[in-house]
Amino acid sequence: MFSSLSVLSRPGRGAAARLAATVLVTALAAGGVAAGAAPAAAQGTSGAEGGAAATIGGLKTYGTAVIHAAGGDQHVSAGLFEMSVEGGGMLQTYCVDIQNPTQQDAKYHETSWRGTSLGTNKDAGRVRWILQNSYPQVNDLAELAKKAGVRGGLTEQDAAAGTQVAIWRYSDAVDVEAVDPQAERLADYLEKEARNLSEPPASLTLVPPAVSGRPGERLGPVTVRTNASSATMTPSAGAATSGVRLVDKAGKPVTAVADGTQIFFEVPEDAEADTAGLTVQASTTVPVGRAFASESRSQTQILAGSSESTVTATATATWADQGPIPALSAAKNCVEGGLDITASNQGDEPFTFELLDSEYIIAAGETRTVTIPLPEDRPYDFTVRAPGGFEQRFTGILDCRVQSSPADDATRTLGEPAPATVVDPSPDPNLAQTGSSDATPLIGGTAIGLVVIGGAVLLLLRRRRERGQG
Fold first, then answer.
1. In the predicted structure, residue 100 carries a pLDDT above the cut 80
2. What is the Cα–Cα distance from 144 to 141, expressed in whole angstroms?
3. What one-character DSSP code corresponds to residue 136?
4. Which terminus in the chain has less CB density within 10 A, N or C?
5. Cα(108)–Cα(105) distance, rounded to whole angstroms?
6. In angstroms, rounded to a whole number, what is the distance separating the alpha carbons of residues 40 and 318?
7. 2 burial via Cβ count (<10 Å: 0-12, 13-18, 19+)
8. Across-strand partners of 243?
9. 14-28, 388-402, 453-467: which range is least confident on average?
10. Per mean pLDDT, which range of 104-118, 230-244, 257-271, 443-457 is the poorest?
């Protein structure tokens, strides 16, 4: 196996930028992959599961809270964010990651709890209960104040701050209280009454997101899961070029889909090895309690309310005449602290790859999931490749933990009020700095038929080691 290293730098959390190192490993898939057998096509993915994609617009309705910590009290803004959805729609969210800053105009995507810190939080269901039983889902503030025993009533700011504080007590396990007495009374009521609820389903997802097979077959099915009453489907340009049709189980063309619809890629018998995709889009309200994660380390959000919004999901099909025919998909797994890669092989030979110095063999007709351990708060970017031109790229950042203490991090500032601690502000308050600690764990030996992005930095690392030994 041949490998090389690529080090990515990113801004640090503090006055000085830090170097965050990520190991990206390259290797050819080990034996069992016949040259020319894999499809000569490339595709990319960030591991997104489908649903709504949005840009955060900042806090809109909020009050003030105080975090009681060993290093002293810290005042933070606490309340309701707004996000604008790509394709149309608005979302309202609360933060479930108190110690991280919110980056201005950060991009977010809907995801499962398993892909965030909620995945390892036994009280995540209580957060959902709070969302469903407080502002803005309960917009009769007089009735909410009555239930909570708040004398004098609640303003929208009180309701938003009290709700956020109650959420933080379960999402981040911090000692936090609202500054306003009415908001604090609401937070206490919500914390006491909260019950564990199950995770809400995705607004739209395709299962599985990748399939494979041989020309002349119907590849699939890909099943639509959505809370929308209907959705539209569009084939990729590659599907049209290859003569691929999107059909149902009986071979009839499919255009409009709904929850439970099964879609097959009907590939012509004379089609050359290739990959094609489809996109399903719908307009719906995103379920309250869905998590939203960014790929830029902006703090994780949880949905409190949704207008009618555009949601999207994609799926791919890969085909070849012979040899292994892999289909790959990925999902973040905060329970295991890594990225789950699901590999399916519908070919007539085993698909073999190496991962963390271990060899995995996906037999013909088998589907298997392996977890790649990844360091927290570090970008990952690697490409799975096989001879014949098949490749699939996986990028993102693993954000699975909430910080136990703000003292763990250096200076952070915010461009606008946000529920994140502000310690020793920098001279320019409009610059938001993000990152993590000085620790730089590496993804050692990660390979799944991978290619390296860059290689020049290997020389830099070698020179650093030589200086350290001298």
1. yes
2. 5
3. T
4. C
5. 9
6. 10
7. exposed
8. none
9. 14-28
10. 443-457
> What is the identity of the amino acid at 169?
R
3-state secondary structure of 45: strand
Rounded Cα distance between 345 and 368, Å, is 9
Q: Give the whole-angstrom CA distance, residue 112 versus residue 110.
A: 7
SS3 401: coil
Please name the helix (run of DSSP H) or strand (run of DSSP E) that holds residue 206, with its range, or none. strand 204-207
* % of the chain with per-residue pLDDT over 90: 59
Beta strands in 253-399 (DSSP E): 256-257, 262-266, 274-284, 291-294, 301-306, 309-319, 326-333, 338-345, 351-355, 358-362, 367-373, 379-386, 390-397
Beta-bridged to residue 76, according to DSSP, are 65
Q: What is the DSSP letter of 15?
A: S
CB 55 within 8 A of CB 107: yes
Upstream peptide bond of 429 is cis (omega within 30 degrees of 0): no
Residue 73 CB burial class (10 angstroms; 0-12, 13-18, ≥19): exposed
- pLDDT tens-digit profile of 284-309? 999 999 999 998 889 999 999 999 99
Are 390 and 32 spatial neighbours (Cβ–Cβ below 8 Å)? no
What DSSP string runs through 411-465? Answer: -B--SS--SS--BS--S-TT-------S-----TT--SSEE-S--THHHHHHHHH
Q: How is residue 208 written in tokens?
A: 């599985």
Report the pLDDT value the prediction gives residue 464, as an integer from 0 to 100: 43
Spell out a b/e string for 305-323, using b for 16 or more CB atoms within 10 Å of the CB, else e. Answer: bbeebbbbbbbbbbbbbeb
Least-confidence region, from 135-144, 187-196, 412-421, 429-438: 429-438
Predicted confidence (pLDDT) per residue in 215-230, tens digit:
999 999 999 999 999 9
Residue 381 burial by Cβ neighbours in a 10 Å radius (0-12, 13-18, 19+): middle
Report the interhelical angle of 181-193 vs 156-171 (nearest 10°). 40
Q: Write out the two tokens for 160.
A: 């938003």
